[in-house]
Sequence to fold (531 residues):
Amino acid sequence: MPSKPAPIKKAAKKEPAKKEEVKAPEPEPAPEPAPEPAPVEAPPAEEAAPAAAAPAPAEGEAAPAEEAPAAPAAEEPKPATPPPPADATDEAAPAAEAPADEEPREPTPPPPPPKEPTSAPVELFIEDKNDTSVTIMWSQPETVGLSGLDGYTIETCKDGTEDWKAVNEDLQKSCRYIIKNQTTGDRLKIRVVAVNVGGRSPPCALPEAIVVKEVADRPKVRLPRFLRQRYVTQVGNKINLTIPFTGKPKPVVTWTKDGQPLDAKRVNIRNSDRDSILFIRTTEREDSGVYEMCVKVDDFEDKALLTLQIVELPGPPATMKIIDTWGFNVALEWTAPKDSGNTDIKGYTVQKADKKTGDWFTVLEHYNRLNATISDLIMGNTYKFRVFSENKCGLSEEAALTKGEAVILKTDIDYKPPKYQEHDFTEAPKFTTALSDRATTVGYSTKLLCSVRGEPRPKVQWMKNKMILGDDPKYRQICVQGICSLEIRKPGNYDGGVYSCKAINKHGEAIVACKLEVKQAAVPDADKEKK
Fold:
């Protein structure tokens, strides 16, 4: 037991520069004799030392936490001190070991996820090729999983064998790869495998082996503009469509209709080095569909879609009936035709016929509804109606006819004209424009004006100073359509005064007046001297 104070000496040697810092503040004596058993066992001494140095920060000095265990080591150990009794050592050991049991334990980590490979890559195709290399492209797997994706391995083998070999040493990260250093004319099978920590995915392979050979001119279909939309023609017409294409060497041309081979009895195909001709001598409704033209040179191909629609006249409406009859009106209703002629119905034409004559007359054209009201029918006549369907080819050959007839009954009409009270336009005279005061010069004619209204037409009298002028030739009196004027011809010095106009009828009278001033003409000064 006394031979184990060596760890304490080593701790003192590790920090010789801190002896003076520890001696400056004298630590208070520990209340318990815990530091003395430290030489017995190294671990209990190291754990008990912080407990003995705990009072040091209480005096105001902030000692670092790492220096607290070095305080007992600063003083020289006393080799002459006898070892403590065994009982004291046994009591200190459990006290020092007690904090070790209270340390928290780390949580148990969850089990790692299972490592699974990804699904197979998709959409593998040839982007380009020449005499010595092939460029391929693909899309990443649909299902990658938690394990992620490390890369791809590209493998090839010659056609007819299963000796697959990887052509890339390192995993390929992108979805495009160029397979180089190939022999011209070899037929290769190519596949791509996705790799992650779970292993290899199922392979994605090309459907056919490819020939390592450069294509001089890739195939291309030059579909005319008018064929890029739906091509519509009527039953019985001839179809002769020429579709050019390019490609070198000469492409292989194939045609399908709705995904199936063409019927050679109905459709003829003529191919040349530059174009392909689709020929149908007499079209029928069954020739309608989507035609696909495919030109192929080795592993490269181009396709074009052509939609044919063969139409004809529609059938008549399925049913037609009279719904109601009232007054001069008839309500009709019908249903759409069962056969639309392989195209949309554009409208309906409604006709009527009088039973007496039997002649049909059109009352509605290009009508889009399935019911109508026919008006302005003749009283006492009996009518029947029919309806034609219409599409882009024209009217249906037959019409839907009403089963019954519409009878417009005669009814007695007692016409009583409304009674109107005549308006009374009589009115007493009223001047709408009064006379205005005027001034004139001797010898210069002047005119007085006013306007009057009244019913019956009023009688107009002109007066000067309340004296009726009468038929004096010096005055000219005119009254036309209510405009009254009095012209005074060359007035003299005595023609000034108050002039008035009076209008009289059986309902009353009205009068207006004005003042006329006649001034003497100005005489120049030279004329005055002569006089």
Summary: Confidence is low (pLDDT under 50) at residues 1-100. The two ends are 176 Å apart (CA to CA). Helices lie at 6-14, 19-23, 42-52, 71-74, 86-101, 525-530. The domain at 320-407 is CATH 2.60.40.10 (Immunoglobulin-like).
